[in-house]
Amino acid sequence: MHTTIPRAFVFAVSFAVLCTAHAQPQKLRPGLWENSVTMKSQSGQLEAAMAQMQKSMASLTPAQRKQMEQAMAQQGVSMGPSGNTVKVCISPEQADLDRIPAQEGCTQNVQRTGPNAVAMTFSCKGAQGQPPTTGEGTMTFQGPTAYTGNFKVKTTSNGKPEQIDMVQNGKWLAADCGTIKPVR
Predict the structure, then answer these.
(1) Is 63 left (phi over 0), alpha (psi -120 to 50) or beta?
(2) Which residues, at least 6 apart from 75, have a Cβ–Cβ distance to it below 8 Å?
(3) Residues 114, 108: contact at Cβ < 8 Å?
(4) Measured at the alpha carbon of residue 72, what is the angle toward residues 181 and 12, in degrees to the nearest 5?
(5) Structure confidence by residue, pLDDT tens digits, 109-133
(6) DSSP state at residue 60
(7) pTM of the model
(8) How many alpha carbons lie under 13 Å from residue 77 in its C-beta half-sphere?
């Protein structure tokens, strides 16, 4: 459970941000992006895991917290205090891509559904102890600096099917990503 949800969460956030580069006639603005995500699982296990994660983070020493934040920043992620806000860095090269880079073992398809909207699907085989994961969603863009999206992610948790519904909002914050490395 603890490894399944973060992978699906990080993949969906990264995928959504990188889709803007592919989907818009105008280029995605490179730099630091903030993505707010509201997630709801059918089983309630996701919410319990997020609450446990927040409790665990709160109990870390300042040195442990800093080490965790640095490790996440190296992967292109910085989580807010509530766990539902993620900051990611998009490099100029990523913003200029005509195709979205796929994570290892994953495929995706993005189709324009209007001048400012896309529909997408993705599928990950599952590896390194992760179950197979599939998802679909829609995104609407408000120019090169903001988007909204809705996703359904299907996976398994503790051997049982699980669906996670996600509502996502993204906004560009700054050209400089600071200590957060570009999404990999």
Answers:
(1) alpha
(2) 10, 181, 183, 184
(3) no
(4) 85
(5) 888 888 888 899 999 887 777 888 9
(6) S
(7) 0.69
(8) 20
